[in-house]
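Hi U.,

Before I forget, here's the chain from the pilot set. I'm dumping it here mostly so it's searchable later in email.
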Amino acid sequence: ISYKEGKTLMAGHSKWANIKHRKGVADAKKGQVFSKLIKEITVSAKMGGGDPETNARLRTAILKARSENMPKDNIERAIKKGTGEADGSVYYELTYEGYAPGGVAIIIDTLTDNKNRTAADVRSTLTKLGGSLGTTGSVSYMFQTKGVISYDEEVHSEDDILEAALELGAEDISSGGGIVEVITEPGDFVTILEGLQAAGFKESTADITKIADTTVTVEDNDRIRKVLRIIERLEELDDVQQVSSNLDIPDDYEDEEE
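Structure:
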């Protein structure tokens, strides 16, 4: 379901299996999530300063950290590392593009203090599991960067979120599988998220992420599992911050472990 007149929800982001899968991976690795958020806060503070009021990227990173219940001290230490008040590593932002089985496009965003290690880890993970590393620009043209905020429909009603989100300037709202998603432009993400929080809505997930314009439908369950395994293994790498793909999981797909 897509509500905003004249717009349709971008292809590939209404498949709730993808969202549930991503959330399950994150929940299972809370310690690793903290580590990755600390890197993001540190880099954000280094690039734009330690004041979240004037540094939108830092503000976004802090909001994500708070949503994961990261202790305030951890957040403050990460900011100090970024601003040079405490010793810290120098991180580089690198993006890799590649393919998984079935022609599924994958983008891997990383923050690393060792470029050679990260490149080797990403390449090895892809090739060992049947994927391949592509050249710069080989798949990135298929994706747009958007803010995505999701809510549990059992906690917050779809109609209430719809009204509040559109009033705040959200680009699109969609629902399905018990989840309501609010889509925003990246520059509006923090304002809309904070506005919805102030209105009493508690998000399940909130992130600025890459969304595919068009998707690849993989009908074979074994091949879907192979793609998901690649995504999981990449997400487990310490230097990887985010993995995006254009995989379209059929509604009737069931994981072998379920």
